[in-house]
Amino acid sequence: MTEEMEEKRKVDSMLKLFELRLLRCSLANYRTLPRAAEDYCGEAAADYWLKSIKTLVDHIEKGEYIEALRSETARLVFEGTVVSECENTKQGAAKFYRQLEDRIADFLSGGGHGTPSGDNSWLDFVDITSDPEACCRAMLAMALGIAALSVFVQCNLTGPHADFPRFPFCYGPKQEIQILNECIEWDIWSSQQLMIDGCDLLGKYTLPQYFILAKMLLMKTRRKISECSKIYNDSVRSISWWVSRLLLVQQKILDERSSSLYEQLQMAMGETLKHFGQLTNVIEYWGNTLTESEVSDIVAASNLETGIEEHAYGHIDRTRQLLKYAETACALKLSVTGALGFRTVHQTEAKAQMVLVAASLDNKDQMRNSLVDDRSKIPQVYGRSELFPDSYGDSDILLAPKLIDEVKDGGIATTVDNVDGGNPKMLDTIKQAVILAQCLDIMKSTPDDEMQDWQMAPYIEAVDAQKLSHFMVRCFCQILRIHWERKRNRTKQRAIVMMDELVQEVGGGSTGVADRMHYAYCVCFPTISALRKEYAELMVSCGIIGDALRIFEDLELWDNLIYCYCLLGKKAAAMDLIKERLQHNPEDPRLWCSLGDVTLNDDNYIKALEVSGNRFARAERSLARSAYNRGAYKKSQSHWEAALALNSLHPDGWFALGSAALKARDFDKAIDGFTHAVQLDPDNGEAWNNIACLHMMKKRNKEAFIAFKEALKRNSWQMWENYSQVAMDIGNFVQALEAIKMVLDLTNNKRGDLNLLSKMVEEMESRKISSGCTIIRNDDTGHNLESNNSLSANDLSKMNTSHCADKPNNIVDTASVHTESYDGVKYSFETEQLVDLCGRILQQLVQSGEGGGEVWGLYARWHKFKGNSNMCTEALLKQVRAYQGSDLSHNEERFKKFARASVQLCEQYIDIASSTGSKRELNAAQMHLRNAIKQAGIFSGSEEYKALGACLQRVQQELQHASGEKDK
Q1: DSSP label at 336?
Q2: Which helix (H) or strand (E) holds 898?
Q3: Which of 93, 119, 360, 883 is least enclosed, having the fewest CB within 10 Å?
């Protein structure tokens, strides 16, 4: 019994070391790592299982993944699956992989004991029912799954491109294997299996059969270990980590989030954090095999990868929490500070720059710094200039600011000019990955504007300044820089050059296969297809349509291809190309949907559903949008429900469902749709606003208040705009103006509700009318600068719903308290606030240049209310000039606005002349009206033209009267 226990302990120890070696393939350290198999196998290496596993692990460490899958060891799992009985069709592929799945399950359960050589004599010395053998079988299957996954990742994520056979196996008749290596039907079937929950693939991916094989091996192994936990005695814990990586890779290749994958990822990542998320658990599992620094790397990596997964599904708070755990695990303290520096070559005056200070709380980086000059002691790492050029073209914008202030406290600056005698402190690669991951949090938690890019800049520049980084971390840093620089006109050209360099380096380059796997799962780097798609979209934005077309066609991104052809005015060419591809592949639902987008024919979407077996969510969404545009809201609602039944992780879909249900007057379903939308995207202020308005309509004031509070947190301009409508409806004019002010601030003055502002000015004027004063009336009230797609109080009122018109009890009525006077008339404190706020808003609009003549008209009325005749005249004059233009004599609507404004201006001139006795204003009015009548002869039959003539007669009468008075 003692010998048996000792043997089990040895096997268990060896398996843990093999697990560690496989993890080290993806988490390299900056030091020479011990070879676990050579140092620790000893006599146990004679055991057949351990020798077989060692063979696979050796191949994987060298990046020889195909050799691992085609080794004699792999026969233990795969031999027995019959290839010759399967046809070269999709049905044949389905039959073969069903057999393979059964074969894997049989192997994990103890079946198929023959050695590759056919010699079974070794079985006499092995107890096939023992726990060690079960663990060995699981370990062997996991190693094969990792090899298959690595082939797929190499060809579709890390590069370089390799000419691997389509069929992963070499066991069977050579002629059959050769045929399958050339058959694309099995690849098409495999790609369809990747399109889970009706999600489409984000481009074209190579070698999908390897991913299918990896998923079968890893998922079957994990399920077997979970079902028989007593037999495996909590061994092979890292299987959950590899399953998480596999599922996250599958999510990366899809064009939208998958609810099924999310559920599986949550379970796998939960197990990963349970086993490897804390230092004590990692030390307990591997004992003294690990160094202290390696323990922290594993803990940081597990939290970092889980954080990336949460980021992929839009969970901001959870992502931030996990990134903080990773930061703590690798003894890193990050803070952003300011320092004076220069951003351009020709800049003479230093300006404040944001700088990242990354303080390392351990001595691991000191060890790394000591190895900088001896690169032979470090696994393959690169400086920036070794992968990408230090400069691009003739841009005068520096890649990183040149700082003049020194960063203290042992920190790291974004340039090499200011720390440790010109050398920035070197950070371990896992810390660099944690730094770059902060950009993911910034992307999700801040508005998508120019400021967001500048908030990410210190993190990008800090890693860019590092002398040594692993390949994938350096590439991730480069793609983040490209995302930043492509949004600036002065660096957009440089971004294109950077992207071209990056695509070439990932697709080819001299970096070894195994070296590219280091930290590949610790960064949110796009797949090669997604990277090329982004490159093509960048080309399109710069007008390089021809090259972009070729990339989109190669990736089979038909929607992007159609868009490019439409830009070139060749919509018919796009249709011909899609029809040609349909002749070769009539069962591709993506092609049918693209054809439907070009022809606007719903029959093509129905055909897409038919060929996909009603499992293509995009087709349902297209039918839903088409029905909504036709006004068939009930039908649109049913299509959205069908699409969301396939994949519920689609926030835009839930929002659209809510909108369709709202139009169909199914208010409960509308609330349900908008609620699901905010659960998936908590920052959707428009959805929060709609929930609040619907609850208000149903008199659920408590729920409406909570929803409005959530909307306010997001600073959504849609919410503020609708809030202004609600406040106006219930008579809270000051609150309505404050909300309008917030809308202007949030939209950079791009969206001003001129209709609401006109009502505010009318409200002021109505209070002045009660005092017997005359006012300017502007019939041209104007409209919003943009259309509002969110639900507003006006939308609800049109549905025969009412709002409370009474003032809230906590509003003090100050109508009788006179505190201010305008033009000799006293007004209440509330009116004073109303006038002041309205004036500030109008002034903000006219200074921004938004709104045109309508804003100047309202501004003139506001000055008239204040009794400032000169400013009123100036505003009216600018209103008239805003309507003038070359098309005035051809655009009737523009002429009408111009004529009304001209009449108001001339009436103001008459008022000034009558009060001052001056003829200058009357002469200016006469000259303006004569010119206006001369230009607008084509509209001589309109009422506005007649009004100009009548006004001219009045001006002339006033001039005659003034001349007569002067003669007297």
Answers
A1: E
A2: helix 892-916
A3: 119
The CA distance from 427 to 356, in Å, is 13
Least confident of 484-498, 760-774, 779-793, 802-816: 802-816
3-class DSSP string for 608-655:
HHHHCCCCCHHHHHHHHHHHHHHCCHHHHHHHHHHHHHHCCCCHHHHH
Residue 821 is inside which H or E element, if any?
Answer: strand 818-822
Question: Is this prediction's pTM over 0.90?
Answer: no
Higher pLDDT, 389 or 212: 212
Could you give the C-alpha distances from 390 to 393, 465, 480, in angstroms and in order?
10, 11, 16
pLDDT interval class at 518 (50, 70, 90): very high
Q: Is 510 left (phi over 0), alpha (psi -120 to 50) or beta?
A: alpha
DSSP letter (8 states) at residue 382: B
Other C-beta atoms lying within 10 Å of the C-beta of residue 287: 10
Q: Which of 212, 245, 218, 42 is nearest to 138 (CA)?
A: 218
C-alpha 304/C-alpha 319 separation (Å) is 9
Question: What whole-number distance in Å separates Cα of residue 595 and Cα of residue 941?
Answer: 50
Q: In whole angstroms, give the CA distance from residue 419 to residue 432.
A: 18
**Residue (of 679, 611, 610) closest to 644 by Cα position:** 679
| Residue 627 · residue 643 · CB < 8 Å | no
Token pair of 957, please? 């009468």
Would you say the C-alpha torsion 462, 465, 468, 469 has a positive or negative sign? positive
401 φ/ψ angles, rounded to the nearest 5 degrees: -70, 145
Query: DSSP labels for 81-149?
Result: --STTS-SSHHHHHHHHHHHHHHHHHHHTT-----TTS--GGGGG--TTSHHHHHHHHHHHHHHHHHHH
Q: Which residue has the tokens 């890193």?
A: 332
Which of 361, 366, 364 is CA-nearest to residue 293?
A: 364
Whether residue 505 contacts residue 158, with contact meaning beta carbons closer than 8 Å, is answered with no
Say if residue 160 is preceded by a cis peptide, omega within 30 of 0.
yes
Overall size of the chain counted in residues: 968
Secondary structure in 3-state letters for 433-465: HHHHHHHHHHHHHCCCCHHHHHHHHHHHHHHHC
Residue spans of beta strands (DSSP E) within 281-378: 332-344, 351-360
Question: Residues with Cβ < 8 Å from 560, sequence gap 6 or more?
Answer: 533, 536, 537, 548, 552
Measured between alpha carbons, how far is 67 from 60 in angstroms, rounded to an integer? Answer: 9
Average pLDDT, the chain: 80
Do residues 351 and 340 lie in contact, with contact meaning Cβ atoms separated by under 8 Å?
Answer: yes
